[in-house]
Specification:
The protein is an alpha/beta fold. It folds into two domains: about 10-150 and about 295-315, Rossmann fold (3-Layer(aba) Sandwich), CATH 3.40.50; about 155-285, Rossmann fold (3-Layer(aba) Sandwich). Helix content is about 45%, strand content about 15%. It has helices at about 25-30, 40-55, 60-80, 95-105, 125-140, 155-170, 195-210, 235-245, 265, 270-280, 295-310; strands at about 10-15, 85-90, 110-115, 140-145, 180-185, 215-220, 250-255, 285, 315. The strands form two sheets. A five-stranded mixed β-sheet has the order 2-1-3-4-9, sandwiched between helices. Strands 6-5-7-8 form a four-stranded parallel β-sheet, sandwiched between helices. Strand 3 (about 110-115), helix 5 and strand 4 (about 140-145) form a beta-alpha-beta unit.
């Protein structure tokens, strides 16, 4: 890609995913900071991927579609040539540093970074932006980062619409249904750092519930890592067990901390949590993920433009 020297680069960042089942070990090793997984750990992760992809691996293409859709939205809002999107992944190629290097090779001198996660944590979004900013400094690129967009009106509108749609799918079970908002757990030590992650997730959940006219809702955590240290809880399985004991019989899971169809949604919710709920006598449904939804793309694009113009971003 060639870029005009006035073009602003946009680094679209996400966690990353293997391109195929054969790439799972290298991916897992990178997550473990260069330490290969045990045979048992590798088999567990590979079996989870196999359960959701069935020999086909659409997850990487989903991130590609998001970046392409964001480019089209930016072109529409700001004019073609104003922005150029690049991908930067945390645990797979193209890595964050690769995306910044590609910008530099194309002559980009100014960039905005945005993570496909609406809520800020120093352990997630903060880490992505730090890596991108450090590489940008090496390349002589002025860098600004979008730290959060968890209450962007377009995001709230998109999520609330999906909640209403999901409740409608429940049919006769809708009246007694509970909306269960969820997000990826993080180590509990973030609470000692006054990290805003948990509060931003609750703010997103409350605002979406209000917009969708939902009174019965709760928030729960999911997909905690197995690190031997405490993680934020309760976990979704613990919450479902408690809800079953309270007589709840239908639940609409709304993963407000995720935007894409990926392992934590397609396996942890659709397979593991759904089976657990059924065993407890609960009907569990899930909202459709945002993926490249136009309203979500508008939230991203408007956040990028705002940061580029000196708003809501972090100058370094």
């Amino acid at each position: 890609m060639s870029a005009d020297n006035k073009t602003i680069g946009v680094l679209v960042m996400s966690y990353g995913t293997p391109e195929s089942l054969e790439g799972v070990e290298a991916y897992y090793t990178h997550i473990r900071r260069g330490h290969p997984p045990t045979a048992e750990q590798l088999d567990d992760l590979t079996s989870r991927y196999r359960a959701i992809v069935g020999g086909v691996f659409p997850l990487r293409e989903n991130t590609n579609r998001q970046a392409e859709a964001l480019q089209r939205t930016l072109d529409k809002l700001a004019g073609e040539g104003a922005y150029a999107c690049y991908q930067g992944l945390k645990h797979a190629a193209p890595f964050i540093e690769d995306g910044i290097a590609a910008m530099a090779a194309d002559g980009i001198r100014e960039a905005v970074g945005i993570v496909l996660t609406p809520q800020y944590s120093s352990m997630s979004v903060g880490g992505y932006l730090k890596r991108a900013r450090e590489e940008a400094e090496k390349q002589g690129i002025r860098f600004r980062g979008v730290e959060e967009y968890h209450l962007h009106p377009q995001l709230i509108e998109a999520l609330s619409g999906r909640v209403s749609e999901g409740l409608a799918r429940l049919g006769d079970d809708r009246e007694d249904a509970l909306v269960l908002f969820s997000a990826h757990s993080l180590p509990a030590k973030i609470l000692e750092l006054n990290d805003p992650y948990a509060n931003q997730l609750l703010a997103t959940s409350a605002t979406v519930a209000d917009k969708a006219g939902v009174d019965k809702w709760q928030f729960t955590w999911q997909s905690a890592g197995q690190t031997g240290q405490p993680w934020l809880g309760p976990d979704i399985l613990e919450t479902l067990e408690k809800l079953a004991a309270e007589g709840v019989r239908s639940v609409l899971v709304t993963p407000v901390g995720f935007v894409s169809d990926h392992l934590e949604v397609l396996y942890d919710i659709d397979i593991e949590a759904k089976k657990f709920a059924e065993d407890k006598g609960i009907r569990l449904e899930r909202i459709r993920m945002l993926n490249d939804d136009p309203q979500y793309m508008a939230a991203l694009a408007e956040s990028v433009i705002g940061a580029a113009n000196g708003g809501h971003g972090n100058d370094e």
